[in-house]
Design brief:
Length: 95
């Protein structure tokens, strides 16, 4: 069980893993949930671990992972999980 906005909801991990995780700061898709960090002493989710896409079937190294603290989850929708996460990607502009 997880607690959202004071209410209790049952959600399967498989349902969580199918949702896209999107940063509310720039609208960028970060990936999908690959793992969940649970505090075993109190049973609460501490963070979600996002496995980013991009590597070709894992041949060229490991996918990038993002750890998002549970407190940074803004909204869990039907298809998307919105999170507060600041990416540190530099953008080059050509003239």
């Amino acid at each position: 069980m997880m607690q959202l906005n004071g209410g209790m909801y049952m959600v399967k991990i498989s349902e969580f893993q199918m949702k896209d995780v999107v940063s509310v700061s720039d609208g960028k898709k970060l990936g999908n949930i690959g793992d969940i960090d649970i505090n075993l002493s109190n049973g609460k989710i501490e963070a979600i671990i996002i496995s980013g896409g991009g590597k070709m079937l894992g041949f060229f190294g490991r996918d990038e992972e993002f750890v998002i603290p549970w407190r940074n989850i803004v909204k869990i929708g039907a298809d998307v999980i919105l999170v507060r996460y600041q990416t540190s990607v530099e953008t080059k502009y050509e003239e």
